[in-house]
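Example for tutorial group B:
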């Protein structure tokens, strides 16, 4: 059996997939792995909650890496592997979002920050859940759309760090203000922008 070529996939989608995977790798190496190595500076704010942050980070890494592979396998029509990895993606998000809820509601930053991260968790569960329901009903187009939304939320890890990094470099607001804003910006704005791209063909076609 030969490998199905990606002749029907636009160059733009391939580039976006590569960029997402590349940014995800940078995030994992620079920000996520230090948590798993129990870096004192990273773990410090989570004393007494180490189990939850380690669960959140480790399963989030899995989701972040599996997402682009899932899109690639779907495009290549490697459906059996796609299905198996999809289950891993679903379980990873389940554990990561559960720990995210605990961390959000026990945060020492502020209630606004906690609500923002809680909202991210809700968006993560809903978008992934709808993707799962869609594929169970064999609604492939809907599945792809909801998986796109799900991975946008998964990339919230990356967007959060980018936002905090840029606003810190520009010295915008206080640290607490940057964190509070980032907790909402990292998933709400990307979802809105992503929705425009998802719906544009239906509106313009």
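The residue assignment follows.
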């Amino acid at each position: 059996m030969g490998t199905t070529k990606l002749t029907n996939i636009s160059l733009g989608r391939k580039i976006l997939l590569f960029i997402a995977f590349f940014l995800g790798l940078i995030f994992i190496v620079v920000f996520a792995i230090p948590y798993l190595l129990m870096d004192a500076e990273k773990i410090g704010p989570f004393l007494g909650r180490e189990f939850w942050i380690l669960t959140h980070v480790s399963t989030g890494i899995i989701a972040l890496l599996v997402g682009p592979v899932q899109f690639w396998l779907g495009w290549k029509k490697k459906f059996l592997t796609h299905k198996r990895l999809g289950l891993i993606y679903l379980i990873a998000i389940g554990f990561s979002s559960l720990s995210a809820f605990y961390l959000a509601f026990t945060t020492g930053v502020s209630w606004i920050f906690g609500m923002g991260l809680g909202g991210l968790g809700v968006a993560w569960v809903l978008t992934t859940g709808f993707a799962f329901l869609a594929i169970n009903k064999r609604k492939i187009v809907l599945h792809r759309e909801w998986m796109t939304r799900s991975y946008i939320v998964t990339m919230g890890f990356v967007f959060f760090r980018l936002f905090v990094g840029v606003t810190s470099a520009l010295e915008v607001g206080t640290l607490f203000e940057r964190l509070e804003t980032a907790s909402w910006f990292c998933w709400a704005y990307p979802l809105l922008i992503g929705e425009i791209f998802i719906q544009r063909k239906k509106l313009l076609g």
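The chain is about 80% helix and 0% strand. Compare this with the pattern of hydrophobic and polar residues in the output above.
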